[in-house]
Model the fold of this input.
Amino acid sequence: QITLKESGPTLVKPTQTLTLTCTFSGFSLSTSGVGVGWIRQPPGKALEWLALIYWNDDKRYSPSLKSRLTITKDTSKNQVVLTMTNMDPVDTATYYCAHSLSEWFDPWGQGTLVTVSS
Amino acid sequence: SYVLTQPPSVSVAPGQTARITCGGNNIGSKSVHWYQQKPGQAPVLVVYDDSDRPSGIPERFSGSNSGNTATLTISRVEAGDEADYYCQVWDSSSDHPFFGTGTKVTVL
Done:
């Protein structure tokens, strides 16, 4: 059974850097074809894809946020870390990580709500 | 950038059929995936590759894709199907995924 869980701060101040960790079980990020992605959802709004990292360390970023995002993996710890710099109130959202074996995401973590406020 | 447009809302009576559309330029040439998101919960994959269902998803959920429109069909709608539904594709030109605008399904 594959499970993922997001962790990180619930509140960050504007201009600060957000660091989120996705800890997973039931699969290995060293297995060919496997990826882990990050998706966020502002309150009451639609899903927005952020970043994706693959077993071979190949990475993809949302073009609109690429300059602010970094995704890394620690295969030995079964973790993927997403950092987002220069946080702004518009970045307030629930952040999800999800397993990917092809073009889709399944399953997803429970999500973590991050509020950006001074 | 690739835009996926969904109707904001669809209302359906119990036992009837709900059809949720996802419009995109030549979307029929891409594989479409659908997620169900109930209030306060994470999205759940209900259809992948246009019309395949993950294990555990009822046969009442089906999908189709042609031309500029993909459709998620929910047959014999139940109260428990009330949720937001999102379509998603991988655009090879951009080499990343895109999500649709989302549709809220209300069971009357």
Notes: Chain B has a mean pLDDT of 97. Chain B has no helices and nine strands. The interface with chain A takes residues 1, 31, 33, 35, 42-45, 48-49, 54, 86, 88-90, 94-102 of chain B (CB under 8 Å).
